[in-house]
């Protein structure tokens, strides 16, 4: 399945080293299938446990959803805390939000271990009300966040007008989020892990996966792999050994503008998004471009025709101009990408209910990088047979999960 179409920005910012695939070891403790954000973070968590790990990627590392990721790291989710509380209960909803909050800290720690820190920068977030009817929603969300110790502040219309270059009836201001170059992060972290003993196999597709007692055999065109356990981190690709229930694959559009000297009225260089669903989201880059995305469509495959991508790019430019009316823009980078959304707005993380040596980390939702981080810790605990009460929140055998 093609996950994106168009000209991507992140691969132009970083030169990836070329490696030959290493010799295949007689046996691995764990094989990770997929070398995107989820796969490399999972590999790190397992290597930190002292395990022998191989990562198999059917294309090149970071070339799937990671390359199309817009790099907003937020503890808030597509579903707000008070809404998630109504869905799964307040205790579990708050716990999940706290896991997301902690995951941003964990991503920062890893980024700081990399040579260039993958352009990780702490930023606040501003979620503005798309219409007057959303003001009470933001008020309710702010109250819930503050109640549980999250840094949040409600802005009325006058505060919005004072701090932002566009008008909105209200906004929710939250602290402790961040931005990152996801492609640089994944490729740089993989280089670090290769130095620690990880075996990375690119252009290696698992054609056949067999169980032989307590051993798993993966047959590929490049040879056979044997492992005690396997973790699927294949994102929105078709799963080789299971079926997802309770999820949709949709598509979204994004553009990256030309560089600008500055942007008037952009409060604290915040990450900006809105209450409408589907929503617009935008951020700056370290070289002073703007990334803006949205215009989601309920179609699973990226738009194939350049004219469609061009038309949606023009619409995003128009929306950007509405928010920053003193600026003019063009978009040298524009693309369409597929993304997954679970029906209960939670990722799929855990052990297969019928095949205990098979594990999954699938970060379905608009917060995929954060889900990948928290999920890698859950997977490591499960594989090391440590109790992890958080695993039940995202378990595969819930109403919406994997079969």
TrEMBL record:
Q: Where does the FAD dependent oxidoreductase domain lie?
A: 29-382
InterPro entries in the record: FAD-dep_OxRdtase, FAD/NAD-bd_sf
Record-given protein name = FAD-binding oxidoreductase
Q: Report the source organism.
A: Solibacillus merdavium
């Amino acid at each position: 399945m093609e996950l994106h179409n168009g000209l991507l920005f992140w691969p132009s910012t970083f030169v990836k080293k070329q490696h030959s695939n290493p010799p295949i070891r007689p046996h691995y403790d764990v094989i990770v299938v997929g070398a995107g954000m989820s796969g490399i973070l999972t590999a790190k968590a397992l290597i930190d446990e002292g395990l022998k790990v191989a990562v198999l990627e059917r294309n090149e590392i970071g070339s799937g959803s990671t390359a199309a990721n817009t790099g907003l790291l937020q503890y808030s989710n597509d579903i707000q805390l008070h809404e998630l509380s109504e869905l799964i209960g307040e205790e579990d909803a708050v716990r999940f939000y706290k896991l997301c909050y902690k995951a941003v800290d964990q991503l920062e720690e890893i980024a700081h271990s990399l040579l260039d820190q993958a352009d990780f920068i702490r930023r606040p977030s501003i979620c503005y009300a798309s219409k007057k009817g959303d003001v009470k929603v933001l008020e309710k969300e702010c109250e819930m966040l503050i109640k549980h110790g999250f840094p949040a502040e409600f802005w009325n219309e006058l505060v919005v007008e004072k701090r932002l270059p566009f008008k909105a009836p209200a906004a929710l201001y939250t602290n402790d989020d961040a931005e990152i170059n996801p492609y640089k992060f994944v490729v740089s972290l993989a280089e670090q892990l290769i130095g620690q003993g990880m075996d990375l196999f690119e252009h290696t597709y698992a054609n056949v996966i067999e169980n032989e007692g307590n051993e798993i055999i993966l047959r590929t065109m490049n040879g056979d792999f044997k492992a005690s356990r396997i973790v699927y981190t294949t994102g929105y690709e078709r799963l080789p050994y299971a079926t997802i229930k309770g999820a949709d694959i949709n598509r979204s559009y994004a553009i990256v503008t030309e560089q600008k000297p500055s942007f008037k009225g952009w409060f604290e260089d915040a990450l900006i998004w809105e209450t409408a669903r589907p929503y617009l989201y935008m951020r700056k880059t370290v070289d002073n471009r703007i990334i803006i995305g949205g215009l989601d469509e309920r179609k699973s495959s990226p738009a194939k025709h350049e004219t469609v991508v061009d038309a949606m790019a023009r619409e995003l430019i128009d929306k950007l101009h509405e928010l920053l009316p003193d600026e003019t823009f063009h978009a040298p980078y524009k693309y369409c990408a597929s993304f997954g959304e679970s029906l209960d707005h939670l990722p799929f993380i855990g052990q297969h209910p019928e095949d205990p040596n098979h594990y999954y980390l699938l970060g379905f939702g608009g917060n995929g990088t954060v889900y990948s981080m928290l999920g890698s810790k859950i997977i490591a605990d499960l594989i090391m047979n440590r109790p992890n009460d958080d695993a039940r929140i995202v378990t595969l055998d819930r109403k919406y999960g994997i079969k």
